[in-house]
Predict the 3D structure of the following.
Amino acid sequence: MEKPNFRTEMLRTLEGKTPAQISVGTFTTAPVLELMDLSGAVRPEADSQPEKMALLAFSQYVNASFETLRYPFDMVVLGEALGCVVDPGTKARTPAVLKGPMEFSPAVPELPEDLLERGRIPVVLKATEILREKAGSKLPLIVGMEGPADLAASLCGTTRFLKWTINKPHIVKRLVELCTDACIIYARECLKRGADVVVIADAVSSPDMISPDSFRTLIKPDMSRIPKALGGGKSVLHICGAADPIIADMTECGFDGLSLEEGIKDLKKAVETTHEAGTAVIGSVSTSSTLFRGRPEDVKREAFECLRMGVDVLAPGCGLAPETPLRNLKALVEARNEFCGRNR
């Protein structure tokens, strides 16, 4: 029996149509050590060399049976391009921002005209071209990037950013506007080079970090500009933690899908709210307690629950820990197959 066209099925899902089957994959980072060993593409080279980045991304399909190709494997590409000092990491430790340019000077920087030529952005763009050629029309390319609030926090420091949301909101608004413009320029180019879906990951927007009111007034207006600016390209918003108080706001931003974490307190209600807006739900098997520490049977149990709650794409709730066992990733696919077999 011929395999479904995973790219077609994913795009149908994000268009609000009924796919032939529920897709399984990841919309969040997946720097898994076993995939590196099996593919021969090891970080940090896979973070800075397009051929290695593409090879590691493709191993998600070859070795984990995922139906998505998600890359890059860290969330600081835009921050680095905008002048952040970055620790390049190791095989088991992802790149991280050490210091942002606004920690030296509080002035909001200008958006550089050569943004797409800076840092590792050219690497991601070249990896996109390689993956598009390799995947053809069969697999969806999912490119992730830090969202406006995350990027802003990288530029000025997370503690300073959080304080500014309270006592200097005018600076936050200017900074978030700049960061949104950067996201749009980068996302458009990724889509132009062959990516199918852009994932905006914004942990700082979580109610665990800033108040829902701050999200609504300081982040949401600019966040809403992103999907509209992509010329019909598909987009997904991922916000970590217990995002329940802002689910409706997230749907109003206009993304085609929401990627939800296991921190959601009422997944059934979140799914219902999201579906009422015509938006797909992606998630939300726990990356820490289940995929990282659990057994395949634990993964299947939680996956079944997510599927019963109505998720449209079965996926990890957040970024995968490098030590996540490959058998647990395969268990996600097995769970979908078993669940859909029982529910035919």
In short: The CA atoms of residues 9 and 312 lie 11 Å apart. The mean pLDDT is 96.
